[in-house]
Amino acid sequence: MHQQRSTENAILIGAGTALADNPSLTTRNWKGTHPFRFVLANKKELPKNLNIFQSPNPAQILDIPLSDIKTVLQELYKKDIQSVIVEGGSKTLQAFIDTELWDEAHIYTSENTLFHSGVKAPELDNQQLKNHFNIKGDTLRIYQRL
Q1: Mean pLDDT of all residues in 87-101
Q2: Which of 31, 53, 57, 92 is least buried, going by the fewest C-beta atoms within 10 A?
Q3: Enclosing domain of residue 84
Q4: CA distance linking residue 100 with residue 15, whole number of Å
Q5: Of 6, 23, 9, which Cα lies nearest the Cα of 79?
Q6: Which residue in 57, 74, 117, 120 sits closest to 93, CA to CA?
Q7: Domain Bacterial bifunctional deaminase-reductase C-terminal, which positions (predicted)?
Q8: Taking a C-beta distance cutoff of 8 angstroms, is the pair 40, 16 a contact?
Q9: What is the dihedral of CA 136, 18, 96, 142, to 10 degrees?
């Protein structure tokens, strides 16, 4: 995942992921450029001590409703962002899927039984398996939108 982050301009998450997971969204385990970090949130929702607001490249807040994904992408384009990984939770991911504003989906799965519960994964429609890889016992499947 960290390697892939180093190849993209930006990473985008929603407020729920920022609060629940407190991710760093960096390439800390891989040499490469850290992507710009963005979070869809109201500025008052998020405490400034979250990892995404720390260096390098503190996250920028996009105060745009999740129902307006087209505007989110227009704002990123205005900031000269040409590629973005959406690492958000199921609501953020599903918003991109439902509006068909995605090109590829990278789905990692594991046989690791450490995780017993979680949030239901988004549902992909109109997709085709492009490639798959085994990575240290995990599987990465790459789908493209038809």
Answers
A1: 92
A2: 31
A3: 2-145
A4: 21
A5: 9
A6: 120
A7: 1-109
A8: no
A9: -10
Distance CA 38, CA 10 (A): 7
Read off the tokens for 111.
Answer: 């046989």
Type of residue at 27: T
CATH number at 66 reads 3.40.430.10
Residue bearing the bigger pLDDT, 7 or 96: 96
pTM comes to 0.87
Residue 114 has what pLDDT? 64
Tokens in use for 116? 């017993």
Q: Is the dihedral of CA 91, 134, 34, 9 positive or negative?
A: negative
Domain count, the chain: 1
Q: Which residue has the tokens 């017993």?
A: 116
Spatial CB neighbours of 27, under 8 Å, sequence gap ≥ 6: 2, 3, 5, 6, 33, 34, 35
Residue with tokens 């789905």: 107
1, two tokens: 């995942």
